[in-house]
Amino acid sequence: MPTDIFFDNNSTTPVDDRVLAAMLPIFRESFGNPSSSHAMGALAAQHIERARTQVAALCNAEPDQVVFCGSATEAINTVIASFDQGTIITSVVEHAATLESVRQAANRGARVVTLPVDQKGALDLQQLESALREGVALVTLLWANNETGVIFPIADIAKLCSTYSSPLHVDAVQAAGKLEIDFSDVPIDYLSLSSHKIFGPKGIAALIARSPRTLRPLIVGGGQENGRRGGTENVPAIVGFGVAADLAKRERVSRMKRVKSLRDRLEAHLLSRSKGVWINGASSPRLDNTSNMGFPGIDADAFVGMLSARGLFASAGSACHAHSIEPSHVIQAMTGARKLASQSVRFSLSHLNTDADVECAIATIADAHQAF
Ligand code: PLP
Fold first, then answer.
1. Catalytic site residue 161?
2. Which of 166, 169, 179, 349 places its Cα 20 to 30 Å from the Cα of 129?
């Protein structure tokens, strides 16, 4: 029985010790309400502005373009609800936060164009361009897929959208900390990020907007976040997010180098040890930490349960859908086959995993596959 191995880092990540150390004094000492006019309030507000600068720097954005909110789901909902008249273009492999949001926008009268992907998980940019020609209120697409790690060519997509003057929102939740993001250079209008995917606390996220005034706030109240998101700010979480963003910026290259070597070893050994195993999205540009593997003959939900009983934590789709019996919509969209989706398991590693984790995981997965 191995000690626990966490290969589910696309669902969430542990809080970095340095992040936690920065948060604790905010709970204990600098606990003022940032809207208060006294010195304790001013100190809390200063903490927020420092974190805003750190989160902006992760994406090479300006601090006043950052709106803190409670989750990337909220950020995504805010953008889509701001553009729910006219046509919204999205893709079939988006996260539930987008798919559900556009479904609701459609109920309110929006026309939704859902682009397909091919077997590699790639979009057809010509298809995107013909949809753009008809005039579009918003394009909303993932940067990197949470289930397969497949990366969309966001710079090309952004160029196309700006040619047709269509606002572009990018769900960069999985890209942040793993890919270079340059908001000042790439013509993206809105970007959503989530702290808990980059070793920060849960319950805090950011919507980065080129012109925050173009957003219609989902939550109104005391005018916080410059009127873009009401409610007393979660200062400890914002501070933690700031530090996590700063670390992600400074350590991204070394983290990704390490995690890629672990992920590649995992894949190489499983491909040679377990018969018939395949990798979804293998021939596309992919995140360095993600491996979505198919195992003939398994049921992914049951297989993830077997691995969990052996101390290895993986996923059979996205965590938001972990209680759903429907196999991954992403793998179904890529393969056109429900069966292949129900045989696909996601392993998402982090720089905190060790060589020993990978050795142990290879043996555990191969044994479980044989035993299935
Ligand atoms: N978008 C993607 C690609 C994700 O992976 C997730 C989380 O799994 C989200 C959005 C939602 O993020 P949050 O948990 O902050 O609501």
1. no
2. 179
Longest Cα–Cα distance of the chain, Å, equals 67
Q: Is 82 in the pocket of ligand 1 (CB under 6 A)?
A: no
Verify whether ligand 1 is closer than 6 Å to residue 72 (CB atom): yes
Question: In whole angstroms, what is the distance from residue 199 CA to residue 159 CA?
Answer: 31
Q: Is the CB of 97 under 6 A from ligand 1?
A: yes
Listed in sequence order, the residues at least 6 apart from 182 whose beta carbon sits closer than 8 Å to its beta carbon are 59, 60
Pair 23, 240: CB distance under 8 Å: yes
Q: What is the pLDDT of residue 325?
A: 64
Is 370 in contact with 298 (CB distance < 8 Å)? no
3-state secondary structure of 61: coil
Q: Which of the listed residues 76, 95, 218, 315 should we mutate to test ligand 1's pocket, taking the one with most ligand atoms within 8 A of CB?
A: 95
Q: Are strands 138-142 and 87-91 parallel, antiparallel or unpaired?
A: parallel
Nearest one of 185, 209, 173 to 79, comparing CA atoms: 209
Report whether 86 contacts 166 (CB < 8 A).
no
- The model's pLDDT over 217-276, given as tens digits with 9 standing for 90+, comes to 999 999 999 999 999 999 999 999 999 999 999 999 999 999 999 999 999 999 998 889
